[in-house]
């Protein structure tokens, strides 16, 4: 191990993001250094070089294959052609690099299609590039990419740009207060501007810089509301700024409601209004294009060359060359300085404009879906402002104010002021559930755990992505559409699935799709299942600011709709690892649409379904009509297992930040009972620094958090906690079948169970525990723990006699047998026991408490049976779908040679 420790090295590499891995690993000597290479590819195919503005990606390395320091380059040859800024995101136990991240900046000479391999070669300190594109002095940070110059400071206008044009950026929130006087409702709107409290360079190097700012909005009566964290991404030679916009809702809905939420840019524009242009791009690739002061359509013709120049976004010839009938009367032609495009629903946007704020709006255009990109420019160029997932995250808006003045305003509204205010109050306050008995009775029929005060939205979050880009000309429609498409689907490099699989840097329950299995019934059913849910998202309109990325839990075949309004049957909130299923499917297939869907689900579950401040932080909420509605606050929802793959593939700093918070989440179990009325461990309040922790859903999430933190930092305390937990679970009289124990939160060790009782839950292995255990067994070999886990994997599905022989009694009425088949396959793979692998496929095919292939029958419904044409699969629930998907990918990875047993069992 490096004598400085990996945590120290991580801080160095994260702070500087240098070209090389330059830590004190040189103390180990260069003899063990060797070159390494891996294949990479573009997720959506190579992007166009003229719109590419930079990207960041992560790759995995086999244990021992790569050590720091190393120099990285991209290209087709062994030497590579473009050096890239790189840093370590995870380590193997032997000190070698497990995951590395790489920033790629645009260069004029680069052939993006040639980026097919990433090369690593040993490096020396003398080879280190020390230049950085960000600098910090006192309380100010400056950035120079070559294409733009910017500076950050504390306060409201926290970002200032001086080149290529002057601009100021600030956050804005509109709060609305309603008061009732008789039959009259009066409303007041308060504009609240963001105040930056902390300012730091989170990553810096020759190719990329990340500036992180944190603060709150100045609310009414000098209050501080809506905490925010912004990250601004700059790439060398780029004129674009990528903004990751994260907010936390902390408003009392009885007092205020959020009416608008956005990011405002104030920029300098010059020249005549007829040389200023506005552009909005639709999701279909169409462009609404106008000059603020039109010279077309007038009663008098200025000249065809005049009209042609304006419509093409070019500088209009001098007025002396116009028809005098127009040049002498140009002052009478109105200048439309204000435009607003509002995406009120996922199916409709409206565009309106007006001359000044004192004048009436007129309708300019309406359509279905806007891409979320607007351009405002003059003869010297302009500003592109874009919101990713714009129509999917309605109600959103893009506005331009004072476009004809020297100082114009562009605002990316993540919540449109024209829409209804955010509804963050609880959807119900039942008066007939005033004690435990009635609440338990209600849970029995609606599947919702209700308790006053527990359905609060206080502390939930939302992350959005915005792009600010500067151009030196007015782009033609084709070029602007290409920019809008890049904002909607950012170019993403990715390691080849075969190399990622070979690295063994992930869990054991996936493998790349094998050419011979493409047409197998299991593989085709896996595709059918993913496609069905992808289509349901569109057909059922599972969109919206707080909803996008989630799917529904259970179907109501009688109403031909998902149970969107019934207690715990509505939004899924990652129940039974639906997000992990989507990631397993992507790792298996590798296509872009599965990545985008898994990415959206990851953003949602880590932000909306989890509390970031308040008494429930950092736990997540169980499935419900509202994402925060159920009173069961649980580690299994906030588990890092849901987002670990996304973090390593993208090196996304916001996701990494959220995963880090989970390392001490177990401490909340001292006063929050995970299962509440659905069962689960009781809180331990009598013993300080102790909590009752289940060996399944709770410890699976805890172990995943500790493991990830150890991988990322190398800090021994996390490893020690893992070992203490693993050893003490294995030492229980019945291992994992003990069910739960009292954990010492300081050490991670469980107290020895003295009762000898058996306890097993069908949910224990449903939320990332199998994946985490497969990694722990590989990284921290502990024979007793391995045996305890393999016992669980085999005995859960064993016959009664074998269970009795091993445990002293049989385990009766266990649920989700199909979902546990992949555990049996893991045991067969680990023990090299063909019989167990065959039995796993047999149980999987039987579909007990899961799905049969006959359940994949999809029916198409048309009006008047339903409001609009939709598909339905009456026998598919998301619980079963997620576990079937995880089971299929797991079995194809662990026991591919025994797949024929599946068909023999049908």
TrEMBL record:
Transmembrane segments: none annotated. Residues 490-898 form the PcRGLX/YetA-like C-terminal alpha/alpha toroid domain. The keyword Signal applies. Residues 37-109 form the PcRGLX/YetA-like N-terminal RIFT barrel domain. Residues 135-484 form the PcRGLX/YetA-like central beta-sandwich domain. PROSITE patterns: TAT. Residues 1-27 form the signal peptide. Keywords: Signal. The keyword Amino-acid biosynthesis does not apply. This is Tat pathway signal sequence domain protein.
């Amino acid at each position: 191990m490096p004598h400085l420790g990996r945590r120290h090295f991580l801080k160095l590499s994260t702070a500087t993001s240098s070209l090389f891995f330059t830590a004190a690993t040189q103390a180990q000597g260069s003899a063990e250094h060797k070159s390494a290479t891996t294949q990479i590819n573009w997720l959506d195919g190579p992007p166009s070089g003229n719109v590419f503005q930079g990207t960041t990606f992560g790759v995995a390395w086999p244990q021992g294959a790569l050590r720091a320091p190393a120099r990285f380059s991209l290209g087709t040859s062994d030497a590579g052609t473009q050096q890239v800024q790189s840093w370590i995101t995870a380590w193997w136990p032997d000190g070698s690099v497990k995951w590395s991240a790489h920033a790629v900046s645009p260069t004029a000479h680069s052939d993006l299609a040639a980026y097919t391999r990433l090369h690593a070669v040993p490096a020396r300190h003398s080879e280190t590039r020390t230049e950085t594109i960000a600098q910090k002095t006192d309380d100010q940070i400056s950035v120079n990419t070559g294409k733009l110059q910017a500076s950050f400071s504390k306060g409201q206008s926290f970002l200032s740009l001086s080149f290529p044009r002057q601009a100021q950026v600030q956050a804005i929130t509109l709060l609305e207060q309603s008061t009732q006087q008789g039959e009259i409702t009066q409303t007041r709107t308060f504009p609240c501007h963001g105040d930056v409290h902390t300012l730091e360079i989170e990553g810096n190097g020759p190719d990329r810089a990340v500036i992180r700012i944190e603060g709150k909005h100045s609310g009414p009566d000098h209050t501080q509301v809506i905490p925010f964290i912004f990250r601004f991404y700059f790439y060398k030679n780029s004129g674009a700024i990528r903004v990751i916009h994260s907010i936390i809702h902390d408003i009392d809905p009885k007092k205020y409601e959020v009416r608008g939420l956005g990011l405002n840019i104030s920029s300098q524009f010059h020249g005549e209004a007829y040389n200023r242009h506005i552009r909005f791009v639709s999701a279909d690739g169409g462009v609404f294009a106008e000059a603020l002061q039109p010279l077309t359509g007038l009663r008098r013709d200025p000249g065809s060359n005049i009209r042609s120049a304006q419509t093409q976004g070019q500088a209009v010839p001098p007025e002396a060359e116009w028809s005098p009938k127009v040049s002498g009367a140009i002052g009478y032609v109105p200048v439309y300085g204000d435009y607003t495009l509002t995406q009120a629903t996922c199916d409709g946007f409206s565009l309106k404009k007006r001359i000044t704020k004192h004048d009436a709006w007129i309708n300019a255009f309406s359509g279905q879906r806007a891409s979320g990109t607007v351009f405002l420019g003059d003869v010297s160029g302009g500003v592109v402002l874009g919101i990713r997932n714009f129509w999917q995250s309605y109600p959103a808006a893009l506005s331009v104010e004072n476009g004809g003045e020297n100082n114009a305003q562009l605002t990316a509204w993540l919540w449109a002021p024209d829409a209804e205010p955010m509804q963050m109050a609880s959807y119900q306050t039942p008066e007939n559930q005033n004690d435990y008995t009635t609440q338990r009775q209600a849970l029995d029929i609606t599947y919702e755990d209700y308790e006053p005060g527990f359905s609060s939205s206080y502390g939930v979050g939302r992350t959005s992505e915005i792009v600010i880009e500067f151009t030196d000309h007015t782009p033609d429609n084709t070029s602007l559409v290409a920019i809008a498409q890049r904002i909607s689907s950012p170019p993403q490099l990715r390691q080849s699935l075969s190399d990622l699989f070979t690295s063994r840097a992930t869990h054991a329950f996936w493998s790349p799709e094998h050419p011979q299995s493409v047409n197998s019934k299991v593989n085709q059913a896996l595709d059918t299942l993913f496609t069905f849910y992808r289509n349901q998202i569109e057909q059922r309109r599972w969109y919206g600011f707080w909803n996008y990325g989630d799917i529904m839990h259970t179907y109501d075949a009688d109403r031909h709709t998902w149970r969107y309004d019934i207690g715990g049957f509505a939004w899924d909130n990652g129940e039974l690892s639906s997000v992990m299923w989507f990631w397993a499917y992507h790792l298996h297939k590798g296509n872009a649409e599965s990545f985008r869907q898994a990415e959206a689900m990851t953003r949602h579950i880590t932000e909306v379904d989890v509390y970031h401040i308040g008494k429930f932080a950092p736990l997540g909420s169980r499935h419900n009509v509202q994402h925060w509605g159920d009173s069961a606050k649980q580690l299994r929802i906030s588990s890092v297992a849901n987002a670990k793959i996304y973090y390593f593939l993208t090196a996304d700093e916001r996701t990494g930040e959220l995963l880090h918070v989970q390392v001490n989440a177990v401490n909340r179990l001292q006063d929050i009972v995970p299962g509440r009325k659905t069962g689960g461990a009781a809180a331990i309040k009598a013993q300080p620094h102790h909590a009752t922790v289940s060996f399944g859903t709770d410890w699976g999430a805890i172990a995943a958090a500790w493991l990830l933190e150890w991988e990322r930092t190398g800090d021994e305390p996390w490893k020690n906690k893992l070992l203490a937990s693993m050893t003490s679970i294995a030492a229980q009289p019945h291992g994992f079948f003990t069910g739960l124990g009292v954990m010492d939160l300081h050490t991670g060790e469980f107290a020895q169970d003295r009762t000898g009782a058996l306890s097993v839950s069908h949910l224990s292995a449903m939320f990332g525990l199998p994946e985490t255990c497969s990694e722990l067994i590989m990284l921290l070999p502990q024979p007793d723990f391995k045996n305890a886990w393999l016992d669980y994997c085999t005995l859960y599905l064993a016959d009664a006699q074998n269970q009795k022989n091993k445990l002293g009694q049989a385990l009766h009425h266990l649920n989700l047998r199909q979902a546990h088949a992949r555990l049996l396959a893991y045991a067969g793979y680990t023990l090299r026991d063909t019989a167990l692998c065959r039995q796993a496929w047999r149980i999987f095919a039987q579909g007990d408490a899961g799905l049969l292939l006959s359940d994949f029958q999809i029916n198409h419904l048309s009006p008047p049976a339903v409001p609009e044409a939709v598909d339905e699969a009456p026998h598919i629930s998301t619980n079963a779908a997620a576990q079937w998907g995880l089971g299929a990918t797991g079995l194809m990875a662990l026991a591919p040679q025994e797949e024929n047993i599946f068909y023999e069992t049908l």
